[in-house]
Amino acid sequence: MHEMALMESLVEVLSEEAKKHNIRQIHKVKLIVGQLTHALPDALQFAFSVLRQYPPFSPEADLQIEERETRGRCQSCSAEFAVEDNYLFICPQCGGLAVDIIQGRELQIDFFEGD
Ligand SMILES: [Zn+2]
């Protein structure tokens, strides 16, 4: 379950940010999680429910997760499209195989709240 490791590193970042901003207790965290991270929201929630037992979190801290689908942009015709299959990047407009991933790799803290 790599979600626990992911959440541990996010918690580390959150702890440092909280210290920087003189926040003693974090009540709410919002994450943006791209499909390509293969991080399951339920597993992230579970990991968070374990880790929020320790400072600087409130034991009832809330975790919100915004999932982002995988999106690609064709290098030939610049079409942007949602990628249904995580491993198949083909432009639906021209069939091109040179596709840049423009969304889906995110794993970031959108914001957090505390006092
Ligand atoms: Zn194309």
From TrEMBL:
Chain residues that bind Zn(2+): C74, C77, C91, C94
UniProt-annotated binding residues for Ni(2+): H2
Keywords: Metal-binding, Nickel, Zinc
InterPro entries referenced in this protein's UniProt entry, alphabetically: HypA/HybF
Domain of life: Bacteria
A Pfam match: HypA
Residue stretches spanning the membrane: none
Known role: Involved in the maturation of [NiFe] hydrogenases. Required for nickel insertion into the metal center of the hydrogenase.
Family of the protein in this entry: Belongs to the HypA/HybF family.
HAMAP family attached to this UniProt entry: HypA_HybF
NCBIfam families assigned: hypA
The protein, known as: Hydrogenase maturation factor HypA
GN (gene name): hypA
